[in-house]
Amino acid sequence: METKRHHSDYANHRIVEWKYNAKEGQIIAGGNGRGNRTDQLNTPTDVIVDQQNHSIIIADFGNKRVVQWLNQNQHILIDNIRCWGLAMDKHEFLYVSDFEKNAVIRWKMGEYNNEGIVVAGGNGHGNQLNQFYAPTFMFVDKDQSVYVSDANHHRVMKWEKDAKEGKIVAGGNDKGRNLNQLSGSHGVIVGHFGHIYVVDTWNYRVMRWCEGKEEGEVVVGGNRKGNQSNQLNNPMGLSSDDEGNLYVVDSENHRIQKFEIIL
């Protein structure tokens, strides 16, 4: 069982660690006001943990940089990038979604003195299969396929390793609330059985899609906007644990909700 989780508290410009069953969290990065000093953050959008050295890597969106925090020491890894989402694969590659360049760029961990390699998008903004318009969160599987939430096109794209274009695996049928549609796709993960879970932000729900299917199914929310336990209000981020539970960043309700998923 995982004992703690890390969340980017973007409006408070900090990263908070919550231990299992804790009544309050602990600030482990930022929390010194909004700013661009090395001990400050500006609207952090995503955070991952480097299990090799237990540092945390943060998408410091407002400062256009990716930063690493280790034992309260800060280090800028990548500068001048409008980073939104982060992911890491088992081969020690770091993936960053560049919101302005409409691309996902990959770096070898520890080797950031280069421009990185574009592994998805990077062909201007548009709705072609080789383009994005505001890529946000992403997930990388064991085969180094990259699943990207293409927020303004209301779809999730899968780019296999070395592909020249992606394929639509969720949404992509214009903005809407039907089961074959999304409205502002954000957090995305792929489960143990290959199911694709995506936060459907403006429909206030989380959808599950099987690759190749024409439509998905609602697994969380979908009961209109609200603050009840079966409701969401502008959900954004998404993660899971080893037991298959989903953790949804329910942003406008200022809470993290945990849901047990029935397969």
TrEMBL record:
Matches recorded under InterPro entries: 6-blade_b-propeller_TolB-like, NHL_repeat
Domain of life: Eukaryota
Keyword Ribosomal protein applies: no
PROSITE patterns recorded: NHL (PS51125)
Repeat positions for NHL: 231-262
Any Pfam family matching the protein: NHL
Record's keyword terms, sorted: Glycoprotein, Repeat, Signal
Stated name of the protein: Uncharacterized protein
Annotated source species: Adineta steineri
